[in-house]
TrEMBL record:
Family of this protein: Belongs to the ELP6 family.
Annotated InterPro entries: ELP6 (IPR018627), P-loop_NTPase (IPR027417)
Record GO cellular component, one term: elongator holoenzyme complex
Involved pathway(s): tRNA modification; 5-methoxycarbonylmethyl-2-thiouridine-tRNA biosynthesis
Xref: Gene3D superfamilies: P-loop containing nucleotide triphosphate hydrolases
One annotated GO biological process: tRNA wobble uridine modification
Identification of the protein by name: Elongator complex protein 6
């Protein structure tokens, strides 16, 4: 087994031979976190893997939460320069904070903005696939903010439409779709339809949670990785869900993953 692989890599199937294809190709990966335990580090780790020198993949990143400089600073600590990846046409960054999405009154205009955004993503996927003939990963950080940022008025129907649009890329272009969502912002209300739909559509659900036993100095939280098992590429394989649980510790230049009680 490749010693460079960590427990998260193994849970996602990166130990399996895929003939140059990512084990996440054609799949929707949902990352859920909470206020006490952010799951952003999982997104950063997957960004690094997609943009690895050993990979031929390309990345489309939709940033509703932070500016480009934030991700570039973090990825540099992990040994990856996003500025270089942009220059090499392996990264296309949609900075939604810079795209003026002021409130619009007309529903048709809101829906049009969502459709326009997806068309831009769709065209970018086509260009990346035709130029590099590579797998493309689409990442969204984070979907709970997209509810407001893309429509201007928290219209959940438009977020659901956008989710369905993006999900078509997994089947039409064999893209990986990775979405971060803050689960606990909806605890005081009924869970919106787009959140329920994301959980239903997801092939892999990664949840970052605080330790059940409370705070610890050397353990920052726990991850659960639910792999629904059915291959979205072939439709064959096991239909059994596979759940794996382990803990993590966040460092400046990486993450330690380990089973409970096994940290060295």
């Amino acid at each position: 087994m490749d010693r460079s692989l960590n427990l998260l890599d193994l849970a996602l199937g990166f130990d399996q031979e895929q003939a140059d294809a990512s084990p996440l190709s054609g799949k929707l990966v949902l990352i859920e976190d909470c206020v006490e335990t952010s799951g952003s580090f999982v997104l950063h780790q997957l960004m690094k893997r997609v943009l690895s020198p050993h990979s031929s993949e390309a990345l489309i990143f939709l940033a509703f939460a932070r500016p480009f400089s934030h991700y570039d600073r973090i990825l540099r600590k992990l040994g990856c320069s996003l500025s270089t990846q942009k220059a090499n046409n392996r990264l296309v960054f949609f900075d939604m904070l810079l795209m003026k999405c002021s409130g619009v009154e007309e529903t048709k205009e809101n829906a049009s903005a969502v459709a326009k955004l997806f068309r831009e993503i769709q065209e970018t996927v086509r260009k990346l696939c035709s130029v590099a003939n590579s797998n493309v990963t689409v990442m969204v950080d984070d979907m709970s903010l997209q509810e407001i940022a893309s429509t201007g008025n928290s219209n959940q129907d438009h977020v659901l439409d956008f989710l369905h649009y993006c999900h078509t890329l997994t089947s039409e272009s064999n893209c990986s779709l990775v979405i971060l969502n803050h689960e606990d912002i909806y605890t005081s209300m009924e869970r919106p339809a787009f959140l329920l739909q994301m959980v239903c559509l997801a092939d892999v659900v990664i949840k970052a949670e605080p330790l059940a036993s409370g705070l610890a100095n050397d353990v920052h939280g726990q991850l659960s990785v639910l792999n629904k098992g059915i291959s979205s590429n072939s439709g064959r394989g096991s239909s059994r869900n596979k759940l794996q649980n382990f803990q993590f510790r966040i460092k400046d230049n990486g993450i330690d993953y380990f089973y409970p009680g096994c940290r060295s």
